[in-house]
Known about the structure:
The chain is mainly α. The two termini are 37 Å apart. Helix 2 (28-46) runs antiparallel to helix 13 (305-339) and helix 8 runs antiparallel to helix 13. The protein has helices at 10-15, 28-46, 49-63, 69-94, 103-128, 130-137, 145-168, 174-194, 196-210, 216-247, 254-279, 281-292, 305-339. Helix content is 76%, strand content 0%. The longest helix is centred in the last third of the chain and has 35 residues, at 305-339.
Amino acid sequence: MTAVSGLPTYSEFVSNPEPAPPRPLKRWPFVLIIGIGALLVLAPIVTGMFPRAVKGEAMIDAFEPYMTRSSIDGYRHDLQVLDDARTNVLTLQRNGQQPGSFDRVDQFVRDYPEINYHMSGMIGAIDDNRQNYEKLAAVPPFGTLPWLFALPGVILVGAGVLGYRRAQEGKQAVVWRSVAGLAALGLIAVPLLGGLFPASPAAQPLIDDLRPILTHDEVRKLQGYFVTLVAADGELNSRYTAAVRTTHPEADLTGITTLETRWQPMTSRFAALIGAMNDNVRNFDAVVALNDSTRPLGFGAFRGLGFFYLVPGIFVLAATVEGLRLPGRMLARGAALRGAKTPGGVRK
């Protein structure tokens, strides 16, 4: 029988078989990358980290002038000046050198031990946490921290989805693995280069020591103390000193006159500190709420902050390496199989 012209022969079918579609490569690394990326995007949203971190950054910036050694020493010296003025008044009273009654001065003498107790405690708490504050102030601005979760998360989700599609087509998706790997390295770099690990243990004692101080009730109490001091100084300056000097020119007024010379800068400093406290009560509450957002896990958020970046970064980096390792083995196996064939296409 004569072959029909134009049709392929049987030998052509045998020698030119249709290539088999590529087998899908391992896809679970990309599923893991997508899952981690989604968690990184959702975590700062669920914990309210975006607004709370901004408030934390505002609080750290606001307290910077009051957390220095010179500032703390200045406040302690101011309290000593007030204490010396009170002692001076008490001495005049004991010596019978106070002519008459002065209500505002008497209230200052009566209330100052409580005032000194609370204000010294506040200054002491600030001083005790000065190094903790410096560690927290040295990390990247708090307002950027949620973005350093969310932006790598978005990149990982995108790289994971596109890499998954390439792997499903039997392609290595080197580009998307590389993108995911760079995002993972960025996550690892945040705590290591940003100083999050040394700063993390500093947050909890700072929160614990400031918690009794940064409340609306405490601020109102300090404002009341300030009113008492202003009223007493006004009476000391306008009536008390003149009356003592008139009736007892020999009286020692050193403590009172020292208070007068330091009164203006002293009140300016105390007013600024009380104002900063009043302005940052809500910011502090936001920081506490952010720290407590991980309490169901058994620890404060700041304690684990560095690990929240490091651990996902390590897992993603491992997934990208795993994704590259399998195709390499498959290519090597394919090359070995090709080398095992004769030139005619028949295995040895």
